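Dear Dr. H.,

I hope your travels went smoothly. While you were away I took the liberty of generating a structure for the chain from your last submission, since the lab meeting agenda had it listed for discussion. I wanted you to have the full record in hand beforehand rather than looking at slides cold. The sequence, exactly as received, is reproduced here:
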Amino acid sequence: MGSATTQALAATTKALDATSGVDLDVAGELFAAARAVGDSSQLSGALADSAASPEARTKVVADVFGRAVSPATVSLLTAAVAQHWSSASDLVDGIEELAIRAAVVAEPSSDVEDELFRFSRTVAENPELELALGSRLGDASAKGALVDSLLAGRASKATSLIAASLVQQPRERRVRQLLSRATRLVADQRGRKVATVFAASPLSAAQADRLADALSKRYGTQVSINTVVDPTVVGGLRVQIADDVIDASVSARLADLRQRLAG
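The corresponding predicted structure, in token form, is as follows:
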């Protein structure tokens, strides 16, 4: 991610925080806008063209989306295209990120983070489902409908919207990668980090609470725990937070010992 995109993402997130009337309809419109921009190289190029003035890019937003979406959505899209992005694809990612964050804002009491994680585990444990959602040959709307049916009655509307929207425009990304990114963004929007913990057996509530407290102190922010049961860990834990990996598993220590003996 280029520095221009980093600054653009910060600016658009700030714009979202200052926008009133953000609901699931706005989030859905932002997802639709991301698909429209991503599907048209001409449109994405025009909106991400740093040589064009912000006013010119804003006019494109008004001409293309002005009558089709709500004023709040237009305002957020305008804020996005007013920024300088490192590439047109980064702009599409930025609009998609806005949509994910908007869904979280729309349903502050829903446990979107945990629901997305659970759905990602369902996908991971069902190769046929992952293939169906990730296939380039499948109809995009059919994939979205499949996700909606799978999550109906099992997840919040915000979670269903995010997951169903993401699988309709993977842009060379795997389904689990999409869901993992969305989970991190949800956590960030709510002011915390998410830790994926790999353990040989499920953690008790007390163990999860102690680990969350220790990680929160280490990172200086609230950390939520998602646990993946992985027998290959053998014992101990492997913890991943974004790009940081803390490996205190028995398997890691054994591998280190074997390497030392071999050396």
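Two observations you may find useful: The chain has a mean pLDDT of 92. Strands lie at 192-199, 222-229, 237-241, 244-247.

With kind regards,
E. W.
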